[in-house]
Amino acid sequence: MPTARIRVRLQPRAARNQIVGWHADALKVRVHAPPVDDAANHALLSLLSRTLKIAPSSLRIVHGHKSRDKLLEIDGLSQANVEHILTETDGR
């Protein structure tokens, strides 16, 4: 089973949940949830699972649980597929 890794720059307490796009080597994502009790991380994983059309259990934060800069692993999709899907959804 393929596994992809992406870097994410997370902005909590945004007006809405949104994938902004790629900036340098990281995907910028905004979520409405605050960074309290893991709410922002859960919102991030929920948004990405819906966007990638995969189960939330296929996503995990491997680095940066308490930071805006995170490293995620995505099971079941290749690196190229993940980057293609996320590029197509920039700003939506």
Please provide a written account of the structure.
With 92 residues, the chain is α+β, with helices and mostly antiparallel strands. It is 26% helix and 35% strand. The chain contains two helices and five strands, in the order E-E-E-H-E-E-H. It has helices at residues 39-52, 79-88; strands at residues 3-11, 18-23, 26-30, 59-63, 69-75. The radius of gyration is 12 Å and the shape is globular.
Helical residue percent? Answer: 25-40%
Proportion of residues in β-strands: 25-35%
Distance, first to last CA? 29 Å
| Bulk shape | globular
How many helices does DSSP assign?
A: 2
The average pLDDT is: 94
The name of the CATH topology is: Conserved Hypothetical Protein Mth637, Chain: A
CATH homologous superfamily assignment: YggU-like
Major sheet: size, sense and barrel closure?
5 strands, mixed
Q: Flag low-confidence runs.
A: none
Q: Tell me how many strands there are.
A: 5
Determine Rg (CA atoms, Å): 12 Å
Strand order, biggest sheet? 2-3-1-5-4
